[in-house]
Amino acid sequence: MQLTNTQWENAAVFMQTMARPLEQTLFDYHFDNGSVVTVLDKLAEFQNEDGGFGHGLEPDMQATDSSVLATTVALQRLRVLGADGSNSLVRQAIQFLHKTYSPTQQSWPFIPPSVKNAPHAPWWRYGADYTKHWHNPRPEVVGYLLDWEDGDLGRQLLTAVLETASHTKNITMHDLYCYLRLLETAALPDNARRTLTPLVKNWADQLVEMNPQKWGEYGLRPLNAAPTPNSLLASRFAGAIEIELDYVLQEQQVDGAWWPTWSWGEAYPDAWQQAKQAWKGVITLRNLLTLQAYGRLSDIVGS
User: Fold this and answer.
1) What is the DSSP letter of 217?
2) What are phi and psi of 47, to 5 degrees?
3) Which has the closest alpha carbon to 48: 65, 31, 33?
4) Which candidate, 112, 114, 26, places its Cα nearest to that of 69?
5) Model's pTM, two decimal places?
């Protein structure tokens, strides 16, 4: 089953008219030979003077102040764009991560205390115990430091990350994302990759929801764990991935977008509607890229 021309046109119209400017430029970059410079300019609008990112880049946390959460989202985008350590956005973000690191807790504050002053999802609450973030976002941040920093904090922390991972039986889906992003790190030493890979595969076996009847709920679906055929876990969940690709094609909504499977409940109802719209653009772009990677819209793009 392929995405139809009508589905593609509906998704394209949504992305070009209803998504945030950042996702609009990313859509143009990936599907219409758009300029990477334009994407970087839009991403820079979310960066603060301290080098960190905020301003609702992660739509569930609308604080303007910088957060490690939003900064990791920015670095995810910059990695996809092929930015290197000389890029000013990357360089300033790495500096922010150095400034906010707690040596005593060997981790970071994921979100700032000021989260309470801006609309946010009810699950985002500041906590002073940064050791709770040893699985999320620490492994992901260490990956960015290994690839981009001018220093040895990443190498020092990698030992702690491997030690923690080796003694952990159960993690959450968001923890798994962080370990997967660490394994995507070009500068990750081979011995660390050999240590982490079987652990990540075992965790994924526990976490990936294989029942299609539950894919409409919030959880870790096969394509979340393996968004491209080159992903570490793609062959592990190959059968479920083919079923889910068909499922994704049927999930598109009447406005051309794919919608989040979660909400903020009764918290900040007006702000949630704005965040939901932002998430639509993020999720729609992600799904289109995944469908493209697995050959489900190859007859449409570029025609």
Assistant:
1) S
2) -95, 140
3) 65
4) 112
5) 0.97
